[in-house]
Amino acid sequence: MNKKKIINDPVYGFISIFDETIYDLIEHPFFQHLRRIKQLGLTQLVYPGATHTRFQHSLGSLHLMQSAINTIRSKGHEITEEEARAVKIAILLHDIGHGPLSHSLESFWMKDHNHENFSLMIMNHINHEFNYQLDMAIKIYKNEYGKKFLHQLVSSQLDMDRLDYLRRDSFYTGVSEGVIGSDRIIKMLNVYNDQLVIEAKGIHSIEKFLIARWIMYWQVYFHKTVVSAEQLLINIFKRSKELIYQGVKLPASRPLEYFLYKEYLEDTPENTLKLFSKLDDTDILVAFKSWMESDDKVLSLLCKNMMERKLYKIELQNGPFDKEKVNLLMKQTKEKYNLAPEEIKYFVFTNSIINKAYSTINDNIQILYKNKEIKDIGEASDMLSLPVLSKAVKKHFLCYPKENNT
After folding, report:
1. Per-residue pLDDT averaged across 270-276, rounded?
2. Which domains, from first to last, does the chain contain?
3. Which terminus of the chain is more solvent-facing, meaning fewer CB atoms within 10 Å of its CB: N or C?
4. Predicted TM-score (pTM) of this structure
5. Contacts of 131 (CB under 8 A, 6+ apart)
């Protein structure tokens, strides 16, 4: 069977697959599952074009990793064929543990597990199937391999994951402010003292990268309507869990039922992973259609609002919201929908979101000068301010039914 393929990607053009093991990994059911997981969850409710998948993103990240390896090798640094395959496998599978629709739902599937944990669990499972050909890839993914810069290519503030998702998300949302020069950044990559660095002549590309990431977070990922939709999604699952705890039987597909009813607690890890790999966006949307007919008024209304895009009215501000305003909205909502006191929390609530463009704690973006001097991007840049870049910006939000707009 011919396992050397060329994939036509709308962002980069042709992506070449020349490695048989990587081809087999792409064909694996666990990886094919990513075709059914949207990269940006509910963001399509704001940007209709944002329907691309984690499958596309993973292939894009693989393509950028191939380019990064070629660049680093061209500058005299050794990356063996075995290491090259391993780091490409690590980036290909970095998102394989993602569940449906949103990061926000990760805690609903298995307590104390996020997509990174799931990715590692799945990689270990697949490794057994592939006669332990993934050993080095897993070490790189866990930052346990000798060459630390290989891990930085997979997970850092300048990894191939970020370079792809910023460019891809910008492409599919149409938000041009998020466009980054990924080709230029990769050409400027180098390694110094086993650390991934950017050559000084690439500093402006990094400045644009950090600004683009900041803009994309507030204009796309934390767009207030996206936040509203995700809060509605979270509340639907909170309500479903509450009803299940009370003994209510909710219709669901087999994979969704398995996790809703915590059957994994008495099951084998192998079966849990197999069912997780079948859980996708479709399971959630089909469940919402069924739950619209639920006898529970709260669950029915929440699901109806989601399916008909009747999202919460949302307000954002720098500080906490006035308690009197919140209490008034709660009173209005209680009366309008005839809710019990414990049910109001599903319709009126406050919370906050936090974002910062750059972290000074781990894996700083380092600029390498010709005299071998190394500077952090915040120090090297004449345009960017490190205190501003690294400051966590916190926004408080208030959600309530649009009919109660005051």
Report:
1. 91
2. 5-222+367-390 (1.10.3210.10), 225-310 (1.20.1250.30), 312-356+391-406 (1.20.1250.30)
3. N
4. 0.94
5. none
